[in-house]
Amino acid sequence: MRILVVEDDVKIAADIAATLEAAGYVVDRETDGEEAWFRGDTEDYAAVVLDLGLPGMDGLAVLKRWRAEGRRLPVLVLSARGTWSERVEGIDAGADDYLPKPFHMDELLARLRAVIRRSAGHAAPALAAGPVRIDPRQMRVTVDGVPRALSPQEYRLLAYLMLHAGRVVPQQELAEHLQGAHDERESNAVEVLVGRVRRKLGADIIETRRGFGYLVAADAS
Amino acid sequence: MRILVVEDDVKIAADIAATLEAAGYVVDRETDGEEAWFRGDTEDYAAVVLDLGLPGMDGLAVLKRWRAEGRRLPVLVLSARGTWSERVEGIDAGADDYLPKPFHMDELLARLRAVIRRSAGHAAPALAAGPVRIDPRQMRVTVDGVPRALSPQEYRLLAYLMLHAGRVVPQQELAEHLQGAHDERESNAVEVLVGRVRRKLGADIIETRRGFGYLVAADAS
DNA sequence: CTTTCGGCGATGCTGCCGCGATGCGCCGCA
DNA sequence: TGCGGCGCATCGCGGCAGCATCGCCGAAAG
Questions:
Q1: Is A165 near chain B, with CB under 8 Å?
Q2: Closest residue to D9 measured CA to C1′
Q3: pLDDT tens track, chain A, 221 positions
Q4: What CATH number should be reported for the domain holding residue A56?
Q5: Is B152 close to A212, i.e. CB distance below 8 A?
Q6: Domain closes at, from B122, B145, B168
Q7: How close B139 gets to chain A, by Cα (Å)?
Q8: What are the phi and psi torsion angles at B110 (to 5°)?
């Protein structure tokens, strides 16, 4: 398993590389954005660990360029400033997961494994839960094979819930994911959005856990 | 949610405490490093806000001592000297996040929430005692495999008792854990809650120790 | 301009949770 | 041995938080 680590801070890069190598991966290191893009484009990696603050070309730009070309290799984004808006930006740019600094190496390993496994399981990373299927590349949603039109926000809500299928997601986490700023409970935006998705896809897709959050059941298979 | 604030500057500590309490947390304050270590070691906090410059025992030493003992509670480190080397030092010592002074209270709140959520999602193993199982991801409780619906408070009560299975938990400790506002015994909230959990899960799950507290038996295996 | 989207306030409903009242069992005490 | 105090169980009720739904409107996109 080859992993590309893109990180300009030498000390952090060395730490990550040591950890990954101890876990049995083969690690290539890169510090410059442009160079990183080239290597990710021409060589074959099981995954990329990508820092956002880079010389040459910004990490987000590298990621977007890969995605624009159709490169679908798993990318785990690191960022020093773990604000939610940045996280949304990273995910929107096509990151498979996001890890805010500081992090524990154990967590990096766990998430990296998850990302690789996910990409290995289905080459086309389509999410499915019950009768609902999501094709993230086309941004299309089908229920029992019948396509349904969702607005961008509705799509993001559903995708986030299905990405975390089997887990109760607090409404505050949803609110932060959809629009980073607003923390205080001053609107019912999430509830309205859930209602709209339910009307379009069916009421039984998203389950309400009063006082906890919302839940999309994971496939029993 | 109980938070331990370790900060020797009285004014700053008061500010932080006021902010956290306004956000709904229950705050314990500590100024001495040695004392802070003891409280963090013996009591149950959702997170710790830890200043580095302390009398008695240095903040980093406190943190390292917790980690050396295997205490995994989330720690948010504050420091007046926001140098990068110090930050690395704090992270290496096992801090979950680092916040250089001066900071905005909003940012403290945001990071604290992130730290708590991360620890809740990651470090929550599935609990089991007798026929009762708790799935923290789905916030769901099953008895002999049959799911039972619990309200948030009921869930927290049961989770706390099962986390401390095999130990008699005083009801005052339960009351403080559920919501520390009410100091002295002026209500029977805990007793009512225990009764409701019993009615939903079975009377023999939670045992009463008159005059001492409540007990969930640990698995004999 | 038309249309869609997303946010907001209003309203109603369900069920959570706190509280007082009452009852029961255990203990100490005269 | 009867009595009263204490700790806990149980019940019912009311306030209100949490959520669903509706309708409106400004903004942005086509």
A1: no
A2: B195
A3: 678 999 988 888 888 888 888 777 878 888 888 778 877 766 668 899 998 877 667 888 888 778 766 677 888 988 765 455 555 565 566 777 777 777 778 778 878 887 776 665 544 456 778 899 887 667 788 888 888 889 888 988 998 898 788 889 999 888 877 765 445 667 899 999 999 999 999 899 999 999 999 999 887 65
A4: 3.40.50.2300
A5: yes
A6: B122
A7: 7
A8: -60, -45
